[in-house]
Amino acid sequence: MDDLPRLVARQSGSRLVTRREAADDLGYSAASLATLISRYPQRWPRPAAMLRVGRVWQMLWDLDELQSAVPPLRESRIGRGSTVSESDGIIRCLECGLRFRNLGRHLNAAHDMTAAEYRSAHQLPATAALMADAQRAQGHDRMMDADIAHLAKFRTPEHLNQMRAAAIESIRVTEDYAAVRAARAAGRRYAVQVMHGKRMLAIDDKARQAGYEGIDDAIRATQALAGTAAAAKIGIGHTTVLRRRAQLGIASPRRRARRSVESGNSSIPPTARPSQHQTNRD
Length: 282
Fold this sequence. Notes:
The chain is mainly alpha-helical. The chain has helices at residues 19-26, 30-39, 63-69, 103-111, 115-121, 133-145, 157-174, 178-209, 215-221, 227-234, 238-248, 253-262, 276-281; strands at 16-17, 49-53, 56-62, 91-92, 99-100. It has 4 domains: 16-69, no CATH class; 91-173, no CATH class; 192-250, no CATH class; 256-282, no CATH class. It is built from 13 helices and 5 strands. The strands form 2 sheets. Strands 1-3-2 form a 3-stranded antiparallel β-sheet. A two-stranded antiparallel sheet has the order 4-5. Residues 1-11, 75-82 and 276-280 have low confidence and may be disordered.
């Protein structure tokens, strides 16, 4: 097949390919593409040329016409952190290098592997989808349009709890894979930033309710108070006050008093100076 002479240039600029050659670009196995073309001939273009090889006539298709006939791939990816598809949405088999829209059937037929065995062999996330985004979306749409009363038994609380437990265990097994950690790192950093931002908004809100412009203004206004007293006045936690003071470079009243004593500043009233017991406790 590789040494088969073929026409590579046409007026349209497209390339003529055999069905087997087109299969990899379109994300199907050669057998699946042949089945689809024969089952739905109205959806697919007719062969553009015939090429004779010995006694056999080989059919050639216009690659652009074939690509326009296949279901479109989604522009926005589904589950970006969990997908193993390439940039065009088609999934490459890591066992043989061929590309498919649905890898599950290929794994079973060509490599005698289950999806779980494939993910384990290549250290992929347990949540990695082995079906292209477009196929997943089409399957979802078909399920929503179909009568799914017969699936009611699979939607009982008992069955859903079993599925949930199995999913948790699968994720636990794969969460230490280097590839999984690398894929999730960006999402976890983003989640931490979001949580921190929401927390700061909530703290700012409490400071404004207490009569301050914001948390920083409240911390500066209460810097002469002990941490617990400042926290009660602002309406936030004691540790939050101490942490925010440290971030703003504000020392606690006891520490400021101790520094003044150590520097020999006699202007500090004796009652404001920390006792030896307080100094040791700090």
